[in-house]
Batch of 2 targets.
Target 1
Amino acid sequence: MSALPAHLLPTDGRFGAGPSKVRPEQVAALARLAEVGDGRTPLLGTSHRQQPVRSLVGSVRRGLLDLFDAPDGYEVVLGNGGSTAFWDVATFGLLEQKAQHCVFGEFSAKFAEVTRSAPFVQDPSVREAAPGSVALPEPEEGVDLYAWPHNETSTGAMAPVRRPKGDPGSLVVVDATSAAGGVAVDLAETDVYYFAPQKCFASDGGLWLALMSPTAIERAVDLKDSGTWIPASLDLVTAIEQSRQDQTYNTPALATLVMLDEQVRWILDNGGLAWADARTRESSGLVYDWAEDRAEATPFVREVEHRSQVVTTVDFADDVDAAAMAATLREHGVVDVEPYRKLGRNQLRIATFPAIEPDDVRALLACLDHLLDHR
């Protein structure tokens, strides 16, 4: 592969689908909270049960309610373990008997497997679509929880967030891990909109957050009151009660919370979710337009309305070595554009989260043009 001229390179070469680019201002915020002097006690390295850290958690919770324009009664609940742990939390704390899963990639399939393997509920109903397309929920008798991802990180396919019509008694539980903070959403169409902060929120992993409706909170309380055994670390009611005190059941990573809070404030200061949505549409549109124009490239997700704004995937012709292009980019400091490992496609996956500058996306595409033109 041809070397890349320095003038083509992005200012910041981080395009990973998670962990994602962290803005320097987030790191600066972290450094400020580690400083000592002038009578100040640093936040880092202090108890998460005391007011300084609880104020930080409260800021995150208020900021998210504001960012998502949450309906009355919705609450921000958080706990340790990331979205993967929340699948177990939801299985114990939200699912009564039977779930319907829409599966169209690796992460939606993993949640379906969690409820399938749980011995205390029925086997789930699974609506499956091939990677690169989406499966959508349909009302089904006996189902009390509908689950699907807003954005499938593994494939770059994005599904609408709308309640199935005709089934008002069931919960809608949406995995928003790679969409939250970068894609507009009507929370009233969900009961639980959950995510981890290492994508659009440009923080570290290891934390789950969920915007929960009063109906979902009531379901969690009812299930716990029924006497079902729930492991303490996966107890959703405990997480709800602790969150209302602006803390977590067990010790969180404070750096994750600091960077998350800084990112939420940055998005709000720039115009909120509408601004972030427009920004990711701009960046992802650049990638898709480029892929449509290059003879060697094709957007992996064929249906335009299902193409992700935040995780773009591009297939290449057989005579193009996408892995070699990714390796050359990495040698020049442009990293993490490799495809999801289990897809096994001749593909690049380019994140367009809010922290990623559209001009850096333009620069990346100029680099790809150079590599393709100088094979």
Target 2
Amino acid sequence: MKLRPLADRVLLKQEKAETKTASGIIIPETAQEKTQTATVEAVGPGTEKDKITVKVGDRVMYDKYAGTQVKVDGEDFLIVKNSDIIAVVEA
């Protein structure tokens, strides 16, 4: 199945949380902090008022409580508004 966001929505693939500390201690899943970084998988066309400011493949940071979780073909994604994206992470 393929998702195509509408209006000013962006489809994100969240990055996995760290499972080990720098010293090698394994962090249990219940204690892992959810990351707020993701890769843009698809973007909507935008609206006259809200232009899309990211493109597919960008690595971004988003608001902690933003978006709607969706599962497609067994993979987890997040659909957020363009305005919920707070930064583009550059290498």
